[in-house]
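U., I forgot to send this yesterday:
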Amino acid sequence: MFSDPIHRAAEELIQRCRDLDVRLVLAESCTGGLITGAITSIPGASRVLDRAYVCYSYQAKEQDLGVPKTLLDQYGAVSTQVATAMAKGALQRSGGRSQYSLAVTGVAGPGASDNKPAGLVHLAVARQAAPTVWLQELKLGAIGREAVRQQTVLTALRFTLRCLDIKSPAPDSQDPKMPALP
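Result:
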């Protein structure tokens, strides 16, 4: 179901979470649950994944994750601000069971949405301790809806893995930057 690179990245993420004894909560929009699917395709995922939200609409982002309507109105769903609010909201709603969250929002295409180009994706990983949020912006271009979603899943898994290994707090930081995908 998932490509070998996605499968390997999900395996690595699960193993690293187990090594660190941390749990994840996910908040997905443009990927529609694919990141959750990739993680849960690996045996042992239940020891790592606490819960996941698929919040496609503005209303779902507000109701399920507590994203302020003012952020959605001002910046649109595909923005650093909303990705950050999604990550923080998911972490808060985990009731302390999760130490990290990953949020993804973007435009899979075809075509632009809310004046944002196809292939624009924002990722946010939040950490309960510190608290800390790391951000990553992808500009994948109009490579097709499914390709955008698959590249986003792979990048999100790798990005989260890198964030798990950062010890010092870097609130609202753009680091670590992911290397370009092959």
